[in-house]
Design goal:
Layout (H helix, E strand, L loop, with lengths): L5 E4 L12 H8 L3 H22 L5 H15 L6 H10 L9 H10 L3 E6 L3 H10 L8 E4 L10 H11 L6 E5 L2 H9 L3 E5 L16 E3 L5 H6 L2
Parallel strand pairs: 1-2, 1-4, 2-3, 4-5, 5-6
Helix pairs in contact: 1-2, 2-3
Length: 226
């Protein structure tokens, strides 16, 4: 089974810890850092959803920059253009979660076809995954930028299947983001929800993950069982 199974890994928040920017934020905004990081991430996603629905596409980097501007205003934090540029630059060198390298290595050794699949632009993803030391784990990087939309637009998942030469029944989306899991299942794929925190809540839409794991190291066995 593993030889035919394709795994699409969401990048931001699943492989890469988007709160890795906290150290820089603690220097710039002090005790507001954790709340600032969370709001920035929430707005980043919200802006991508809204632009996708409006069919008014701009890259994920633009969404991230605009979300940073919003967050500065929300918390009345006055950052200079240079400081904002520094924060945006960190998005290219964010760290992977602790379980990522082992989990991907196990899956690759088992014969699964691994791809990175993200809202980010391909060039930014190549830099990010290379800096994180995991680019060589993947057969390819698939970006929504090529179809000018964002997850969870069903056309984005169809694009992934075309690019990876996979079929929905033999392809899994692996993500920590419930919207991504639900989107992929709605588009005919299987999906693994990575519930990194016991406090994380899955949306009660009546569409459940195919499997749920707390770590990527659980994926090999659980996917094989399904």
């Amino acid at each position: 089974m593993a030889l035919q199974t394709t795994l699409a890994f969401d990048v931001y928040g699943t492989l890469i810890d988007t709160h890795g920017v906290l150290t820089a934020l603690e220097t710039l905004v002090g005790d507001k850092a954790k709340a600032f990081s969370t709001t920035w991430r929430d707005k980043q996603l919200e802006y991508s959803f809204r632009k996708g629905l409006m069919q008014n596409y701009e890259t994920f980097a633009v969404c991230t920059s605009q979300a940073l501007d919003y967050t500065c205003t929300f918390y009345t934090v006055d950052l200079s253009d240079e400081q904002k540029k520094e924060l945006m630059g960190i998005y290219r060198v964010l760290p992977p979660f602790a379980d990522v390298k082992e989990g991907l290595s196990n899956l690759k050794a088992s014969g699964f076809r691994l791809f990175a699949f993200s809202n980010g632009a391909a060039d930014a993803l190549e830099v990010l995954l290379t800096n994180a030391g995991i680019r060589d784990m993947f057969l390819g990087v698939v970006s929504v930028d090529e179809v000018k939309s964002f997850k969870p637009n069903p056309g984005v998942y169809s694009h992934f299947l075309r690019q990876s030469e996979a079929t929905g029944g033999d392809a899994w989306l692996v993500s920590s983001n419930p919207f991504d899991v639900i989107g992929s299942i709605s588009a005919g794929m299987k999906s693994a929800w990575v519930q990194r925190s016991a406090d994380a809540i899955f949306d009660p839409w009546g569409i459940e993950p195919t499997i749920t794991v707390s770590s990527l190291t659980e994926l090999d066995q659980k996917i094989t069982q399904n």
